[in-house]
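I am still getting used to C-alpha cells and would like to learn alongside you. To get us started, please write out a protein record for me. Once you have written the record down, we can walk along the chain together.
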Amino acid sequence: MAMTALSHFWPMGTIMRAMTSNNEEEIIQCPSLLKRTHAGTHLIHESVHVDNPRNYARPGFGWANSIFGELIVRLYTVHRDILSEKIR
C-alpha cells in the first residue's frame, strides 16, 4: 500500500511535540498516542497509518527511537507524575 501524507502521521513529530510543550494535557496525549500505535513492536516507526497502526514504515527507525528515549528521560526528570500515573 502506498503512503500518502494525508493517511500517515510521523511519530517523531509527536515526540517533539511532547518535548516542547508546556501543556500537561498535550504532554499526556503524545506518549499515549505513541503507546497505541507501535503495532505490537514496541518501537517507534517512521510513519504510521492514522487508521491502522499495523501499516507503518521503517520498523527500526533508530533516530525516532532515540528521541523517544530522550522523551522518557525528560518525563522522568521534569514530569515524573505524568510518566508514572497519567499515560494510558
